[in-house]
Specification:
GO cellular component, one term: cytoplasm
Strand content: 15-25%
Largest sheet: 8 strands, parallel
InterPro entries: CobW/HypB/UreG_nucleotide-bd, P-loop_NTPase, Zinc-reg_GTPase_activator
Domain CobW/HypB/UreG nucleotide-binding: 3-179
Order of helices and strands: EHEHEHEHEEHEHEHHHHEHEEEEHE
Oligomer: single chain
Number of helices: 12
Organism: Methanococcoides alaskense
Helix content: 40-55%
Distance between the termini: 34 Å
Pfam families: cobW
Radius of gyration: 21 Å
Length: 381
């Protein structure tokens, strides 16, 4: 099994890149599984990836020191035993340190057939200077840890700025390979990106080794149990995990307030009304967030179901207009509203109040009642 980790700050285009990467590999005949690590208790990106036909395993509460450390191990081993993909793609939350995830995969010691592709960090070129201004230490570490740095969204950038940002990124990490891409376009740049991540000899070597293995077995410190997908962690590994819990909390290091909420929609609504509601909720949330963090960087992402199809909206910075997309999901039997918010330089309690208030009030004005679904996870840092 070949593992690829695609990191990058909030809103850098990880989900789009991973979907297109999955399609590229499937077209080549490889079996692909995807793990999505979300912020908070509500899974959002995983729902979208599943709509493209990929097997996903979603880990919520996107916190390195908590569920990701323990949940990632069991998730990877379950996929290894039950699905045995050729390629496993992991999308960390945008406020993770992907290098820690790579180290966790290495600790699993999955055997000769397991390899790790070069660690990728996506950089949103259209927001690069703003991210460095708001999140310098955090975003710099993501760049410094990478083996491949992909400057994304070049279609949204001033062409004069592209080589300047490229040189700035290379100065931060002299050892990494740097490439320009636009994840929305499957063009020559995208295929060059794929060749950089997946050189033919790496894919072939990984598959050749996989063919030689007849079944999962006990490997190194991790015991693979095919019957139930359980794994056992050595005392030494537990000590390493606890050390990183104390020192490597990515959420604490980022200084980003995060909140994810999910609501059941009572009754029915058509796509036109759902679009109007989504636009108004997003407009109001963004305006109020800017009252607290005028130059915020982060991600506000929303999915609102109608009777048929789903409205997606997102915004990643104070200077952006919210982007709207209609995702063709067909008939939705259960209608939901999901909102993921992660905002720089803001208190979480303020963010929670803003999201919950506008979600409820806007829906009510359109004659729609919503019910917030409860969550159960507690952080004890």
């Amino acid at each position: 099994m070949l593992t690829l980790i695609v990191g990058g700050f909030l809103g850098s285009g990880k989900t789009t890149t991973i979907i297109n990467t999955g399609k590229y590999l499937v077209d080549k005949g490889y079996k692909v599984a995807i793990i999505v690590n979300e912020i908070g208790e509500i899974g959002i990106d995983g729902d979208i990836i599943k709509k493209f036909g990929f097997d996903t395993k979603e880990i919520t509460n996107g916190c390195i020191c908590c569920s990701l450390k323990m949940g990632l191990r069991s998730t990877v081993i379950t996929l290894f035993n039950s699905y045995n993909p050729d390629v496993l793609i992991i999308e960390p939350t945008g406020i993770a340190f992907p290098n820690l995830i790579k180290r966790e995969i290495e600790l699993m010691d999955l055997g000769e057939g397991a390899e790790i592709a070069p660690l990728v960090t996506l950089i949103d070129g259209s927001r690069f200077k703003h991210i460095l201004k708001e999140m310098k230490n955090f975003s710099t570490r993501q760049i410094e840890d990478a083996e491949i740095l992909a400057i994304n969204k070049i279609d949204l950038m001033d062409k004069i700025q592209i080589p300047i940002i490229e040189e700035s990124v290379q100065q931060l990490n002299r050892k990494a390979k740097v490439i320009r891409i636009s994840a929305n376009n499957n063009d020559e740049k995208f295929y060059s990106f794929m060749d950089m991540i997946f050189p033919e000899e790496l894919l072939n070597r990984s598959l050749d080794l996989k063919v030689q293995e007849t079944k999962p077995k006990e490997m190194g410190k991790t015991s693979i149990a095919p019957a139930n997908g359980l794994s056992f962690v050595s005392k030494k590994d537990m000590e390493l995990i606890r050390d990183e819990q104390e020192t490597e909390s990515s959420i604490d290091a980022s200084g980003v307030a995060t909140y994810a909420a999910e609501y059941n929609i009572k009754g029915n609504t058509d796509i036109d009304r759902a679009t109007l509601i989504a636009k108004e909720i997003m407009k109001n949330i963004k305006a109020e967030v800017m009252e607290h963090s005028p130059e915020f960087i982060g991600h506000i992402k929303m999915f609102l179901d109608s009777n048929a199809d789903t409205v997606k909206m997102n915004v990643t910075a104070y200077f952006e207009d919210p982007q709207l997309e209609v995702i063709e999901t067909g008939n939705n039997d259960i209608l939901k509203l999901k909102i993921l918010s992660a905002i720089s330089n803001m208190e979480k309690k303020e963010l929670v109040n803003i999201v919950d208030a506008f979600a409820t009030d806007v829906c009510k004005r359109y004659g729609i009642e919503i019910e917030k679904l409860g969550t159960h996870h507690e952080h004890n840092h």
